[in-house]
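Dear V.,

Thank you for sending over the compound details. I've combined the ligand you provided, zinc ion, with the protein sequence from our construct and run the structure prediction for the complex. I'm sharing the raw inputs here so there's no ambiguity about protonation or stereochemistry in the SMILES, which I know was a concern on your side last time.
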Amino acid sequence: MQPNRPGAPGRPPSQQYSPFSLPGSASSTASRPFLPGPTQPMRPEQPPSQPSYPPGTAIQGFSVLSASSTPLAGPEQNYPRETPPVRSNGPVVPFQPSPNLPPPRGGPSSFVHPTLGGPMIGQPMAPPSGSSAVQQIAPTSGPRLPPVPSSASVPMGPPPQAANYMSLGGNFPPANPSSSEYPPGRTSSIPTSGPPMPHSVSQPYQGGQGGQVPFFAPRTSFPSPQLGIPAQQHFPQQGGPLAYPGAVSQPPMLSSYMDAQKARAPPSYPMAVPPAGGVQGLVEEFQSLSVGSVPGSVDPGVDPSLLPRPLDEADLEGTTSSSTYVSNCHPRHLRFTTNAIPNSQSLMARWHLPLGAVVHPLAEAPNGEEIPVVDFGNSGIVRCRRCRTYVNPYVTFTDGGRRWRCNVCSLLNDVAGEYFAPLDVNGRRRDADERPELSKGSVEFVAPTEYMVRPPMPPLYFFLIDVSLSSVRNGMLKVAVETIKSSLDKLPGFPRTQIGFLTFDSALHFYNLKSSLTQPQMMVVADLDDPFVPLPDDLLVNLSDSRHVVEALLDSLPSMFEENTNIESAFGPALKAAFMVMSQLGGKLLIFQSTLPSLGVGRLKLRGDDPRIYGTDKEHTVRIAEDPFYKQMAADLTKYQIGVNLYAFSDRYTDIASLGTLSKYTGGQVYYYPSFHASLYKEKFSHELARDLTRETAWEAVMRIRCGKGVRFTTYHGHFMLRSSDLLALPAVDCDKAFAMQLTLEDTLLTTQTVYFQVALLYTSSSGERRIRVHTMAVPVVSDLGEMYRNADTGAIICLLSRLAIEKTLSHKLEEARHVIQLRTVRSLQEYRNLFAVQHRLAGRLIYPDSLKLLPLYGLALCKSLALRGGFADAHIDERSAAGFNMMIIPIKRLLKLLYPSLGRLDEFLLKGPVMGGDDAKGSLQRLVLSAERLDPRGAFLYDDGFRFVLWLGKVLPAEFIKNLLGVEAANSPDLSKLPVIEQNNELSRKLLATLKALRERDPAFYQHCYLLRQGEQPREGSLLLFNLVEDQIAGTSGYVEWLLQIHRQVQQKG
Ligand SMILES: [Zn+2]
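Below is the predicted structure of the protein with zinc ion bound, written out as C-alpha cells.
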C-alpha cells in the first residue's frame, strides 16, 4: 500500500506524516469564520416561513496531532468519522432527493451522508494504465461498422427529468445478436483529402428506417441519404457515389436548386417568394427552394452557393421579440425557441420543434449595459405575495398607486408605504423611469438576511491534483501550479477568499497552510479504505492570511514530485477527502486528473470503447457513468454547495463519462485535453484555468424560472441538480453557463394575450453579498401557427435540440438521437408547407420560414458534431463524452460557432492592405462556405470553431511565405503536429499573431490552440479539419445538398 514515494525533501518515504515541522495543535475552532452548521443553502426564494434547520454543533476540540504513524487511522478516532462538521453532531440535513438523483443502484449506500462512515470497498487494484484494454481505444485499421437499422424512433418529447439522467442501462433487452458481424477493430474515420473512403457505414442521417414515424407511413419514407448525387458537380474533390449497396441505384435528384426569385433584401440565400394572394395580408416571410418533386428532375443553372448559411456574425445573435415589449430583458439572457406561445394544445401539437427557452443568467454584458443593482433596504424586496414574482416593468399599478397587480398571477398586492408613488395620467408610476425594477428587463436585487440561512460564504477554491507519473511527465502539474500562482491576485473575493490543496497518487497528501507557518506541512494518508482528514482546520485557509505559505507550496510542488514514479490514482478516496475538507463552506473544487482512477472507492475499469455494442441496445452504456459512486458523490457535493470543474489530461482512456458526472450534477464544467503536453498546449490550459479562476462566479446559487398561468416548464437541460421540481441547484455558476428548458401548456386554451416569464437566480456574490438576478420577458400568445414559425429562433431551437439529442445518447443509440433531429426538422417544415404551399402553388418546392432558414444546416452540423457523429470509429469515446458535456453548458452563440465554424482565406488577408496590428487586425476574415472545395492549394486558410484554430497550408503555397509566417521549420518539416505558432521577425508573422489574438479576445471563454496542418497530412487533416467541414459529403455522411434533398423528399412524402 505504501506508495513508491519519491525522495522528496521533507518526505521520508515510510512515514504517514512527514511534516516540514511537527504539526501543532489543531484544536481551534474559533478561527473559523463560519459555524459548521448544516450547510443547507440559502433559503431559496421562499417566504420566511420555511423551517430552517437547526444548527449543528460546532466542532469540538480536535486533539493534538501527533506525528506518529498510527494513531489516527483507527475507526471512530477523535476526529475523522465524527467530527467533520457536516456529518456529526447536528441532525443530518434532510435533503430532498430530486428527480435528478439516482437511486443508489444496488451499490453500497455508504455515500448518502458526507460522513465516511463504514469501510469502503476500495481494494487496491489492479492493472494501472497500459494494460490490454488500451488497445480498444486506439485506432486500428479494421473496417467500420455495417449499417444497423434503427429501432423504434422516439420523438424527443418531454420525458420526465429523471429519464434524461437516470437511464443507466439495463432496461434494454440485448438486441441484435449479430454482433459477430462487427469486426473488432475500427477504421480511422478520418477522411482523406482525396476521394472519400467508400465506407460501408451505418448511415447516420438516414432517418427512421424501421422507425415508427407516424408521419410517414411507409418505411421507405426516409430513404437512404446516399443520393448518389453527382458529386463531381459540387464536390469535385470527392469521388463519386459511395459504394454501398443501394446507394447508386438512386437517381440523382437534382444538381442544383433555387430559382432565385429575387424579391426582397439581398440575402445570400434563396429568395423569398412574395405571397401570391393578398388574403389576410399574407406577409409571411417564407423562403423556398425549388427542389424537384419528381425524383430525377433537374433544375439546372442554379448556384448551390445560394443556400442559406450563417456567414455573417449577425446570424448568431438572437432576435429581439416584437417592439411591443420594450421592457424585455436582452436576448443574451433569455431566448425562446419561438417568440410566440401557442394558445392551445392543438396548436402546440403542430409545432414540431422543441418549445422552450435557453437561459444564460450571468451572460457578460458589454460595457455600459451592466445590470442595475437595486437595494430596497429594510423595506424588503417587492414581490407578489402569492406567486413570489419579483416586481418588474410589467406589473400594473392601480388604486392611485396603492396597489399593484402581478403580471404573472394577476393578484392585487398592496404597495408598502415606503414604496408608494403616485401615478401619472396613463396610470404609470411617476417614478417608473428612475426605478430600474420598473423599467428594465434585467435587474439585480440586494437580498436581505431573510434570503440566507447562514452568512454568505466566501469564494473558496480547493485544488485536487493528481501528482502521479503522468501528471509530472506531461507537464500538467507544473503548468497548473504556475497558473494558480499567477492567478492568486485575481481570485475574486479578496480578502475573504479561501484556498486549499490536496494532491494524490496512490496516497493522499494534505497540506497544512496555517498562516503562522513559514512552510506548508505535508501529511500523507495512505489508508484509502478509510481515509480521514488530518488537521481539519488548517487545510483550508484564508488566502490573504496564508499567502506566503500558499506560494511556498505552489513553488515546491513540481520539484517535490519531480521524481515521482507512482502510476496509481486514488482518485475516489481523494475526492471524498476533499469533500470532507470543503463541506463546511462549499465552494469550487477543481480536479486535475491525468490517469484513470485505479485505487480505492470509485476506481474505474479500463472499459474503453467496444465496437461490438454499437448499434445494439447497449451502445449507450459506454457514455454513462459505470459506478454509481460518481453520481452519488455529485449529489452530496451539490448538497454541500460544492461545484466541480474537471480538468482531464490523459492520452489514454480516462472514462470522462464517469468523471464528468461530477461536473454534470454540480453545475460544473469538463475541460478535456487529450494527449496533453505542456510544450504544446500550455497556453490553452493555462488560459482556460485562469479564466475559470478569475471569472465572476455566483456562489451557492439556486435558479428558478417562473411563468404565467397556463404554461409550465417540464424539463431542464444542462449542468445542475434539481432540488425540487423547478429549482435548479447551482453550487457555483458563472458567466459561461447556459441552461435550457422545455415548456408545455397546462390548459387546453390560453385566454391571455401575453405570457410572462421571470428567471430568478439567487446567489452569493464574490464580494459576499446575497443577490437575486432577475430577468423578465413577455411573450405574446398566438392562435396562428404561421406566427409561431415566423417568430422561431433557430439558435434557441438548436441549443435545446442539441441538449435533448445528447441526453438521448445516454439511453439510446447515437443513430436514434440523430434521427430525432432530422425527424423534427422534417415535421416542422412539413407543417409549414401545409400552411402555405397550396395557396402559393409551391407544390414542388421546399418552403420554410425565413426564421428557420438555417435550421436544416445546423441540424446537419449537429448530427456531425463530435458528440453525435457516426459510431464507434468516428470519435474516441472520451472525446465524444467531453464534447457532450461541453455542449450541455455552452450558450447559444458559442454552440452555433462550434457547429458551423468560420473558415477564411488567411494568406490574402495577411498580405493585403497595410500591415496592421492589435485591434486593427480584427478587420475580419471573410467567412467561407464550409467545404473542402474552398481550400485552394495555393492558399493558407484559418478554421475557427471557438475552441481551436486550424491553420491549413496548401500544397503549393510558396515555401517562402510559410517560412516568413511560421519559421523555417514549418516550411521544411513534413510533420507540423508538434510545432507551435511563434512570432517571426517580420510583419507578416506579427500580423498573423495579432489576428489570432484578436479572434481569441472576441470570446475569451476558451482559448483556441492553433494547430498547423499541411494539405494532405494524414491522418491529422481529416480529424482536425476535413471531417468538420459540415457541408461536405464525407466519410459516409450527407453533405448539405444531400441533406436538404432528403429533407425535402421526406417533407413531400405526405403533405
Ligand atoms: Zn403573482
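A first observation: The CA atoms of residues 137 and 609 lie 6 Å apart.

Warm regards,
I. M.
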